Amino acid sequence: MTESNPEQGKRGLNVRIDARRCIANGKCTTAAPGIYVLDEETGVAVLENEEIATVAQLFAGARACPTQAIIVEQYGRRVFPQILTPMFGEKPDEDEDAASS
Ligand code: SF4
């Protein structure tokens, strides 16, 4: 099966931003300008120009985020942050990689 989507060049990387975690401090927008931007309406960070973003830019924004709102996945598995700390008052996500034993 051949893939012809732009994600191919990024080795299956996918970025999602958890709006509940975003405190809109703009650290990611400084780390990767034009890739992470603050949405004018909601105030939370969104990913723009994903198709031209480099892997380094995607990770730079994610690393800059103090609240772990930017989650990088590769082929459906979270690769950053490795440990996703639950937010205050939040139960750990059930869709996390549960270390079921
Ligand atoms: S660095 Fe994190 S908390 Fe700050 S704007 Fe970006 S996603 Fe939101």
UniProtKB/TrEMBL annotation:
Pfam families: Fer4_13 (PF13370). SUPFAM superfamilies: 4Fe-4S ferredoxins (SSF54862). It comes from the Bacteria. This is Ferredoxin.
